[in-house]
Amino acid sequence: MTETLHPKLQPQFDAVVARNPGESEFHQAVHELMVSLAPIAGKRPDYAQWSILKRMCEPERQLIFRVPWVTDTGEVQINRGYRVEFNSTLGPFKGGLRFHPTVNLSIIKFLGFEQVYKNALTGMPIGGGKGGSDFDPKGRSEQEVMRFCQSFMTELHRHIGEHTDVPAGDIGVGGRELGYLFGQFKRITNRYESGVLTGKGLTWGGSQVRTEATGYGTVFFAQEMLASRGESFDGRRVVVSGSGNVAIYAVEKVQELGGTVVAVSDSGGYVVDEAGIDLSLLKEVKERQRERLSAYADARGGAVRHVTDGAVWDVPCDVALPCATQNELQAEHARTLVAHGTGLVAEGANMPCTAEAVTILREAGVLYAPGKASNAGGVATSALEMQQNASRDSWSFEETQERLRQIMVDIHRQCLETAEEYGDPGNYVMGANLAGYIRVADAMVALGVV
Ligand code: NDP
Ligand code: 2IT
User: Is-contact 299 322, C-beta < 8 A?
Assistant: First the structure.
């Protein structure tokens, strides 16, 4: 933890750490928010009187359950399922499901906590939550993934609903998994309740642009940041980490806006393609074949480098978009970016930069956007999907994309206006945290102690 807390907030943070021992990612997310609250600490007695912050750090409900399933060879497997329903002040709990072997309660709680303020920033009527499992879909057959999803939903279905809690995708959960989850929900409940999940396929209640939304939204946000300095993506060299859903559609939008993405990564390394990433090949390898990036390098022959040591941040760039996972961009990587003259870092992933990395970037004058602002386009488009489901309507790609773009422009404006109002112009972290916090806190005061 690099930045110090306001003296009124330090005891509150210490209490969160004591109450949630060992949950380092959750502590990190809470600390970042509390640092930003300094301008209102002690100045909003109503928030103190109603113990707003204390209640915000305690999820409304935390579910942990066994997920038993059987492999193709007849072995019984046990995974752990989670759903942390963090805050439903602004609407039903809303947030993704992550299937990855590293998933634990701390990770789900940090993601659920961040989701509350991200969702508030979108201006849509959605609360915040997150869930998932330590299940690893890699190397599993279609049938194994389906059986796992069915078992997971057999428990989860009791807790979710259009007006209660609305999950979606995240790492390891895409259209395929959401299909199996929705199918099982429909079968168990005997209800075609479209609004219970978002990220659905276009033929069964999904929205145009939801697949693209997080990556596109991150680039729309970065475009606004560049515009605030009279710049654009045109001719920029861009590095994107990850090569999953968020990364692929960030690459697509950067290319549409005239930038060149020279590198992408996965957990096995990164590829450098100086001619610009071949997007259709990347989609073929990652979305259809579910292969490693080494297959991309093999297909491109000697034209690209596949690097398995170091980090993708070693590749010089003007703009860096971390779109893989939490804490993937650390202090040493931030120093490298600064040394290479990178001018902008916008987070497509959730909390990909460590607190120390953020301090280094900001002190060097790099424009930096936290994920809860810059990656909010995914959940915002989920809320547009819920809106279409509720009205049994569906909008065109163009209309939906324009709504997404407007939402990102609006979040960008809120960040800058709030940072300016509270005395730290250009601080996107403070702007995002305070704007989101104040919206949730005011509504919590109105709803009383619940
Ligand atoms: P995907 O599963 O589609 O892709 C994840 C990518 O990140 C893969 O390339 C994966 O590599 C890489 N990755 C994951 N974990 C690690 C790790 N521990 N070390 C190195 N690389 C890793 O997920 P998404 O693209 O959906 O999610 C990416 C990030 O964006 C996450 O932080 C997620 O929370 C966030 N996000 C997602 C949204 C969405 O709508 N999907 C919305 C907002 C934020 P490999 O394939 O080798 O595992
Ligand atoms: O982190 C996120 O915002 C997501 N994974 C998307 C959540 C959603 O409900 O669309």
Answer: no
- 170 CA from centroid of ligand 2 (Å): 6
- Write out the residue limits of the CATH 3.40.50.720 domain(s) in the chain: 213-374
> What 3-state DSSP class applies to 268?
coil
Does any ligand 2 atom lie closer than 6 A to the CB of residue 94? yes
For residue 180, report the distance from its CA to the centre of ligand 1, in Å.
Answer: 20
Active-site residue set: 130
pLDDT per residue as tens digits for the range 335-372 = 999 999 999 999 999 999 999 999 999 999 999 999 99
Q: What's the angle, vertex CA 440, arms to CA 17 and CA 368, rounded to 5?
A: 70
Q: Does the domain spanning 61-191 belong to CATH 3.40.50.10860?
A: yes
Question: Is the C-beta atom of 95 inside 6 A of ligand 2?
Answer: yes
Shortest-distance ligand to the CA of residue 265: 1
The yes-or-no verdict on residue 261 having pLDDT over 70 is yes
User: Residue 321 in contact with residue 346, Cβ under 8 Å?
Assistant: yes
Ligand nearest to the CA of 323: 1
- Give the β-pairing of 128-133 and 165-168: unpaired
At the top level of CATH, the class of 213-374 is alpha beta
Ligand 1 lined by 92 (C-beta under 6 Å) = no
The pLDDT, as a whole number, for residue 3 is 82
Residue holding tokens 């102690």? Answer: 449
Give the atom of ligand 2 at the shortest distance from the alpha carbon of 376.
3
- Closest atom of ligand 2 relative to the 166 alpha carbon: 9
Amino acid identity, residue 37? L
* pTM, full prediction: 0.98
CA nearest ligand 1 atom 40, residue: 378
Task: Name the segment(s) of the chain with CATH classification 3.40.50.10860.
Answer: 61-191
Look-up of token digits 């945290």: 433
Instruction: For 267-318, write each residue's pLDDT tens digit.
Output: 999 999 999 999 999 999 999 999 999 999 999 988 899 999 999 999 999 9
Distance (angstroms) between ligand 1 centre and the Cα of 283 equals 15
CB atoms within 10 A of CB 14: 11
